[in-house]
Write a structure and sequence with these properties.
599 residues, alpha+beta, five-stranded mixed sheet
């Protein structure tokens, strides 16, 4: 995931102050000439370098706690581009208004930082080690949570650096420094076992110097009396350019001869998956406070991976479940034409899991029974973190379909009345997860046929799963659509024109429904088409009408909605494109804004 500023032609990436000065000199040194570069001190921060009166001024831009960006004493802005636009209109304390961007010369790319070159590998390894994920579950975790994971691993990036030697004592540090060549500025960083802090050890004039690296209450690292940094690796990179508080600039890394047996993990993350309750999750879907300094991620919950991911549990997997293993609560979660949904617990070989149980009340209704069994057979084939998995079927006092529990309830009900509590980026996060689940269905040649906000269930505020596969159908790998033999009680307001006119159902038709689901979510649970009846909606669409843009809807998402509502299905994007666009926008706003509000 690239920095949001990489697309700006005047952004130079991780260059030093002297390199910035040189580019500005080559640019002509006219008043108001400027460029943007990464800040070596603050994670996620920048530096604005500006020319005035043949001098160059450098203004640090810090990323604030609320996710905005500001020059010290200046106004906050949602991103670096917006900040530069503001100062091009008003100097507001700068030496000059920004008059002319110093564009990168032809062939010069923005220079990635040290962290940029290793973060992709770290991100993958971090997710693998922390949650014991492999295969598709690992890939889904990385795609859906890359922005959050990147923030988590930044604080431990130093552990992957050659100059980090872990838990060694001062005498061992000196032995390693004196081994081999001994140039001025040879260095290493070690963990001070007794104090629980870090130390920088370096050579100068054949003598060893040791500097304590302190950590203040705000979480900043620094050499005493020196500059403060968000991470250890930023401190080291800065000292390679300037001897800020140390006797000499850092020149040559003393490489760690061996890697630690077990990588150190941040204390805020659980070493293995824990139950949602142990992480502070409430059954109604709310997460009042971030836990351990961070909010719950989907991978923290029991329902991220299949209950049968354990090979021992897989031995017992069968479509039909034993009644004695199923404990049913009398509390109803909901009801429908088939009967009702109750909560319960299913006892497995090594554990027990919370489940939702769809109970068919009238066993004599052959059509309902057949419909429930078709749903069971269909869901048995699905295994994705963003789809409600089916555990099995139980034939006892009634026919019962046993599924994963998603206690947060339907998305439309959850969002209703929460416009002032839930941020748009939280809503976008959930919609991106829905697009990932639908992409999985598309790749496996399944059409949902009933995608709507009511059929998106929440595990918690930041984790959504697609549910209700009663109308779903498998289509052949070589077929592009499924054709229903007869019309039924269809959710017309969510259906594409070809579904209504020709009974043709495809992943492209599901894309239309996803557009309506987006609209529902971005209006915080409003009903589409207001009080229009089904036939009125059909006429409205045929005449070129579409749902109005939601009041808080960003331009990018409104454009995607319009693409989803392309009349001709062959011109409509598939979920591969929809998920990519949702992901790009989600990453963009996650980098620009703070973590979504917890409610």
């Amino acid at each position: 995931m690239r920095d949001i500023a990489f697309s700006l032609p005047f952004f130079y990436g991780s260059i030093s102050r002297s390199e910035a000065d040189e580019f500005l000199r080559l640019g002509g040194m006219s008043d108001g000439l400027f460029l943007l570069r990464l800040c070596l001190r603050n994670l996620g921060g920048y530096v604005l370098s500006v020319v005035f009166d043949l001098k160059i001024y450098h203004y640090p831009i810090e990323r604030q706690l609320n996710g905005t960006y500001a020059i010290a004493g200046g106004k906050s802005h949602c991103g670096p581009e917006e900040l530069c636009e503001y100062y091009s209109r008003d100097a507001d304390g700068l030496c000059s208004v920004l008059r002319k961007p110093c564009l990168r010369p032809s062939g010069v790319e923005a220079k990635p930082g040290v962290f940029d070159s290793i973060k992709e590998h770290m991100l993958r390894e971090y997710a693998r080690q922390t949650w014991n994920l492999e295969g598709e579950a690992l890939e889904q975790a990385i795609i859906s949570q890359a922005p959050q994971l990147q923030k988590l691993i930044a604080s431990t990036a130093h552990e992957k650096m050659a100059w980090y030697h872990g838990n060694i004592r001062r005498d061992e540090a000196e032995r390693r420094l004196y081994s081999g060549a001994q140039p001025d500025g040879k260095f290493l960083v070690r963990h001070r076992i007794e104090q629980g802090m870090y130390a920088l050890s370096m050579l100068y004039g054949k003598s060893a110097y040791h500097y304590r690296i302190g950590l203040d209450k705000s979480g900043k690292f620094s050499i005493p009396e020196g500059s403060k940094f968000d991470t250890l690796w930023q401190l080291v990179e800065y000292l390679k350019l300037k001897s800020d508080g140390v006797i000499h600039v850092l020149r040559e890394a003393c490489n760690n001869p061996s890697q630690p047996a077990e990588p150190v993990r941040p204390p805020s993350l659980p070493p293995n998956r824990q139950s949602a309750i142990s992480l502070g999750y409430n059954p109604d879907g709310y997460t009042p406070e971030p836990i351990g300094g961070r909010r719950i991620l989907p991978m923290d919950t029991d329902s991220y991976v299949s209950p049968y991911s354990d090979p021992e549990e897989l031995k017992d997997k069968t479509l039909y479940l034993k009644r004695e293993c199923l404990l049913i609560d009398e509390v109803e979660l909901g009801s429908g034409n088939f009967g009702c949904v109750k909560k319960g617990v299913y006892r497995m070989r090594k554990k027990q899991i919370d489940v939702a149980i769809k109970v068919l009340k009238n066993d004599n209704e052959k059509s309902l029974k057949e419909e429930l069994m078709k749903e069971a057979e269909f869901m048995q084939k699905l295994d994705n973190p963003y789809i409600v998995r089916m555990i099995g079927v139980c034939q006892a006092e009634h026919l019962m379909l046993v599924m994963e529990m998603a206690a947060g309830g339907p998305l439309n009900k959850f969002l209703s009345g929460k416009k002032d509590q839930l941020s748009i980026d939280n809503v976008v996060e959930l919609l991106h997860q829905v697009s990932m689940g639908m992409k999985y269905l598309e790749e496996n040649h399944f059409v949902h046929r009933d995608l709507a906000a009511r059929n998106v269930l929440l595990v918690n505020q930041h984790y959504a799963k697609i549910s209700d596969f009663g109308l779903s159908k498998a289509i052949g790998a070589d077929d592009s659509y499924y054709k229903a033999r007869t019309a039924g009680k269809w959710p017309v307001k969510w259906y594409a024109p070809e579904c209504i006119n020709f009974r043709k159902f495809s992943s492209k038709a599901d894309v239309w429904s996803f557009g309506v689901t987006m609209w529902e979510a971005l209006t915080y649970g409003q009903k589409p088409y207001k009080k229009m009846k089904g036939p009125e909606v059909v006429t409205f669409i045929e005449q070129g009408g579409r749902l109005d843009r939601p009041a808080e809807c960003p331009d990018e998402l409104h454009e995607l909605m319009q693409k989803c509502w392309t009349y001709k299905w062959e011109d409509r994007p598939g979920f591969e494109q929809v998920e990519t666009e949702m992901r790009n926008y989600y990453y963009q706003i996650t980098q620009k804004t703070s973590t979504p509000k917890e409610v």
